[in-house]
């Protein structure tokens, strides 16, 4: 494991701009996340999402780095009018103890919007004056369009100083994902197709400014369960996440560190199941592993870029210690995924995308049903329409 640099020894602006530390490691908070008292969570629960985000992020970003006024302006610009649902991340009761957290109501219909409507503003704020930056992005699908959309919305002076170049695999994304990315070809934003290769998945959701906004929705879902009287503060929940680069999982663990009573995080993989193998065995071995194309391409990842943060977190900063896992994991086949879409629709009328279906299968197999389970729905089903229609056994499906 590479040495991890510590947020606190470096300025927030340096951490955001650099992404990776000079030694090749990942930035982590020096003293962890500040734990909020139950009374503070109850106070935040009465707020709309944007105000919740400000209240939570103020505990994660020093006011000398980003002033409270500037932070509030950025957050309200990110979440004020850019999401189709007024709740931003609505929580739906699926059945019995299971809930779906819909993270796909942003402009590109993916959970990546929750980070990438805010991250470009933080990046531009931290950018040194008189400097121009070219941002290179490698994506397995949703990240590309979310990055392009987020950076396009910067104010003109910031937009002129930042260029974005997105690489994506020609045959590894859905048609809608491809159209979203190739639709951005003006000004300083471009997308380029390349042959499918696992190296394209190694340098994505590592930036600290991308991880922080995700902590907010894991906190927000718990206080939504408080508001609808499903829970009283202190009652545990489990969270199930379709897992690729592990950033979403880390943000849930950081929410737990802030005081949200998350008992277990369940990582759900498709047949590219290196994460579930690692959780089960403690070994992470890429030798003789080939990336297999699936109906859930956003988690078609073998080299999980946030895994070092996880190892540092669960081992107490000492990689030689036995890992005390806060995480469980499982994987499902393509047939399992398609069956889940069909059965959930038949019993509840709810339509899941292929990634959410992977989470549903994982949750069904692993969760012990002694507390509520929140399944993160990371993309709108329309982005993967051919696969979803096939799962629903519709006829004459367009190619």
Feature tags:
single chain, about 400 residues, alpha/beta, Rossmann fold, six-stranded mixed sheet, three-stranded parallel sheet, 11 strands, about 40% helix, globular
Describe the structure.
The protein is α/β, with parallel strands linked by helices and 399 residues long. It is 38% helix and 15% strand. A hairpin with a 2-residue loop joins β3 and β4. It has 16 helices and eleven strands. It has helices at residues 12-18, 38-44, 49-57, 68-79, 112-116, 119-126, 142-152, 156-159, 175-182, 208-227, 247-257, 274-281, 307-314, 334-348, 354-366, 385-391, and strands spanning 6-7, 28-29, 91-95, 98-102, 133-138, 162-169, 189-194, 237-242, 262-269, 327-331, 373-377. The protein has two domains: 6-114 and 203-391, 3-Layer(aba) Sandwich (Rossmann fold), CATH 3.40.50.1100; 115-201, Rossmann fold (3-Layer(aba) Sandwich), CATH 3.40.50. The model is unreliable at 196-203 (pLDDT under 50). α3 crosses α10, α10 (208-227) crosses α11 and α14 crosses α16. Strands 3-4-11-8-9-10 form a six-stranded mixed sheet. A three-stranded parallel sheet has the order 5-6-7, covered by helices on one side. It comes from Sinocyclocheilus rhinocerous. This is Threonine synthase-like 1. It holds the Pfam family Thr_synth_N. Keywords: Pyridoxal phosphate. One of its GO terms (molecular function) is pyridoxal phosphate binding.
Strands, total number: 11
> Globular, elongated, flat, extended or rod-shaped: what is the shape?
globular
Q: What is the ordering of alpha helices and beta strands?
A: EHEHHHEEHHEHHEHEHEHEHHEHHEH
Please report the number of helical segments: 16
Helix content estimate: 25-40%
Using the coordinates above, name the CATH class of the largest domain: Alpha Beta
Largest sheet features: 6 strands, mixed
From the alpha-carbon coordinates, what is the Rg to the nearest angstrom? 20 Å
């Amino acid at each position: 494991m590479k040495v991890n640099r510590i947020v606190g020894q470096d300025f927030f602006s340096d951490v955001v701009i650099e992404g990776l530390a000079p030694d090749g490691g990942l930035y982590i908070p020096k003293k962890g996340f500040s734990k909020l008292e139950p009374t503070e969570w109850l106070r935040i629960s009465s707020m709309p999402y944007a105000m919740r985000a400000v209240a939570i992020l103020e505990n994660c970003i020093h006011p000398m780095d980003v002033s409270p006024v500037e932070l509030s302006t950025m957050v309200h610009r990110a979440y004020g009018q850019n999401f189709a649902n007024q709740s931003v991340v609505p929580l739906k009761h699926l059945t019995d103890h299971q809930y779906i957290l819909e993270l796909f109501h942003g402009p590109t219909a993916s959970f990546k919007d929750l980070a990438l409507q805010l991250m470009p503003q933080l990046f531009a704020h931290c950018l040194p004056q008189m400097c121009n930056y070219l941002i290179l992005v490698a994506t397995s699908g949703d990240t590309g369009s979310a990055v392009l959309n987020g950076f396009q919305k910067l104010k003109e002076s910031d937009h002129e100083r930042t260029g974005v170049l997105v690489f994506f695999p020609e045959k590894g994304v859905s048609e809608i994902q491809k159209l979203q990315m190739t639709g951005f070809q003006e000004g300083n934003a471009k997308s380029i197709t390349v042959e499918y290769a696992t190296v394209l998945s190694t340098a994505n959701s590592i930036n600290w400014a991308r991880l922080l906004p995700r902590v907010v929705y894991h906190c927000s879902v718990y206080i939504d369960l408080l508001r609808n009287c499903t829970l009283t503060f202190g009652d545990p929940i489990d969270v199930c996440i379709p897992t690729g680069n592990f950033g979403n999982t880390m943000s849930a663990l950081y929410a737990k560190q802030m005081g949200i009573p998350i008992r277990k995080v369940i990582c759900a993989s498709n047949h590219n199941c290196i994460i579930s193998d690692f959780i089960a065995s403690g070994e992470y071995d890429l030798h003789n592993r080939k990336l297999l194309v699936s109906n859930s391409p956003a988690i078609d990842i073998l080299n999980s870029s946030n895994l070092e943060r996880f190892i540092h977190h669960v081992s107490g900063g000492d990689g030689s210690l036995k890992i005390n896992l806060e995480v469980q994991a499982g994987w499902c086949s393509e047939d399992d995924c398609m069956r889940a879409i069909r059965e959930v629709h038949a019993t509840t009328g709810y339509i899941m995308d292929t990634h959410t279906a992977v989470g549903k299968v994982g949750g069904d197999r692993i969760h012990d049903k002694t507390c509520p389970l929140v399944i993160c729905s990371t993309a709108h089903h329309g982005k993967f329409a051919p696969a979803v229609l096939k799962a629903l056994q519709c006829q004459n499906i367009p190619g």
